[in-house]
Design goal:
This is 8-oxoguanine deaminase. This protein has 451 residues and is an alpha/beta fold. Helix content is 36%, strand content 20%.
């Protein structure tokens, strides 16, 4: 017999018509309970949610988990994107290996889940010798913690040099045929298009300045063949927008069209420097944008045109971005930053707390091509974040939903994925946080050896 769990009487939820909560069964939301009502079916279990504001689980659509090994790295701090990445790339290429990558993935996923995140996408593009099976490591770690994962198989096939705009050291790049063969392997093993899937796959050449047009076209063909998503960095800086015009003789959006990427399979990281015509073109084709507010502020890259892009038809999602340009993996913090930086670009009326929360849930789900997560509604997966308002920062707050963003919620009290508790009382189930901190910290010391 199917067990029904009533999430009863939350302080507030982001589910319309769920004033008295909702019912979870078989990993899904099966009923919303409106004000003054009781569930239709007999309940086997009841969870008293009267201490909690309940939101859909947050969805992270852009990350670089290996970078947790170089947070606040002395060689890279206080720099904009290009000096930053030039200083840190050789460190990554020399020191990232299978052992510390596993710890980085474990720590990143744990941090994300503790911040209310239930689904993540990690744009992993660094495959030095010995790390050829990075996607398998991430799949294993996601399964262990119980997080949904889009395994985003990145790639680099151009090496930096005097006549190249690329910046990757030789040890970071792979041959196109090797990349494409591994893309096929990862798709065959992990890409699950079923409703409620725990793992899916996306293909993600790193950025137009360090991959070939051949790789862009071939990955687009693979995505069409296997019904998977496409992802890349695009116009994070003004320099990249200029690169497209100077090197390819066209805008970045026109470049996407030329290589077969101007379609609704695609979501882009950053997307800051699109002109008006590009915004409209991307919107017409349903190209998603992952807004990375924290990283963009740290590196002073600029402010994404979220409202114009969304109005044009582009889904807007949120991402924490790399843990060496953000320096943490907290998606709820990114929600607050999206609100604040959005108001700097627009005004206090145009960007609301509900906009920022929507981007981190429904918008992010659309970027990942998923209609089964990102909302509290009947039929959606029971991926949920429960927020206590017991901390001093919430005292005096009048609007409980707004307080999560304006008062700076930082850690979820409970997290549920597919109807299963994964965080209880702020702690991830089955994770020894002290041991993880020790092992990750010890491994990260190797990345300081060159100093």
């Amino acid at each position: 017999m199917t067990e029904h769990l009533w999430i009863k009487d939350p302080i507030a939820t982001l589910g319309d018509g769920a004033e008295r909560g909702f019912v979870v069964a078989d990993g899904r939301i099966t009923e919303l309970v409106p004000k003054g009502a009781e569930p239709v079916h007999p309940m086997h279990k009841v969870f008293d949610a009267s201490r909690h504001v309940v939101t859909p689980g947050l969805i992270n659509t852009h990350h670089h988990m290996f970078q947790t090994m170089t947070r606040a790295h002395p060689a890279a701090i206080n720099k904009s994107l290009w000096p930053w990445i030039a200083s840190i790339y050789p460190v990554w290429t020399k020191h990232v290996n299978a052992e510390n990558f596993r710890l980085a993935a474990r720590l990143s996923m744990t941090e994300l889940m503790m911040s209310g995140c239930t689904t993540a996408s990690d744009h992993h593009y660094l495959f030095p010798r010995g790390l050829e099976h990075a996607m398998d490591i991430e799949a294993e770690e996601a399964a262990a913690i119980g997080m949904r994962m889009t395994l985003t198989r990145g790639a680099l096939d151009l090496t930096g040099g005097e006549d190249s705009q690329a910046i990757a050291p030789g040890g970071a790049v792979q041959d196109d045929d090797v990349i494409l063969a591994d893309c096929e392997r990862v798709i065959a093993r992990y890409h699950d298009t079923a409703d409620g899937a725990m793992t899916r796959v996306a293909l993600a050449p790193n950025a137009p300045f360090d991959v070939t047009k051949r790789l862009m076209r071939e990955t687009a063909a693979l995505a069409e063949k296997h019904d998977c998503r496409l992802h890349t960095h695009l116009v994070e800086t003004a320099r990249e927008a200029a690169f497209a015009r100077e090197t390819h003789g066209m805008t970045a959006a026109d470049y996407l069209e030329e290589v077969g990427w101007l379609n609704d399979r695609v979501w882009l990281a950053h997307g800051i420097y699109f002109d008006d015509a590009e915004v409209q073109k991307l919107g017409r084709h349903g190209v998603g944008i992952c807004h990375c507010p924290t990283s963009n502020m740290v590196l002073a890259s600029g402010i994404c045109r979220t409202k114009e892009l969304e109005a044009a038809g582009s889904p807007i999602g949120l991402g924490v971005d790399g843990s060496a340009s953000n320096d943490n993996s907290n998606l709820m913090e990114a929600v607050r930053h999206a609100l604040m930086i959005g108001r700097l670009r627009y005004d206090a009326e145009t960007v609301t707390h509900r906009d920022a929360l929507r981007w981190a849930t429904e918008g992010s789900a659309r970027c990942l091509g998923r209609d089964d997560i990102g909302a509290i509604a009947v039929g959606k997966q029971a991926d949920l974040a429960f927020w206590s308002l017991d901390e001093l920062r919430f005292s005096g707050a009048g609007d409980p939903i707004a307080s999560l963003v304006l008062c700076g919620a930082h850690a979820a009290d409970r997290v549920m994925v597919k109807g299963e508790w994964r965080i209880e009382d702020g702690a991830p189930i089955g994770v020894d946080l002290g041991r993880l901190r020790y092992e990750h910290g010890r491994a990260s010391k190797a990345f300081l050896e060159a100093l």
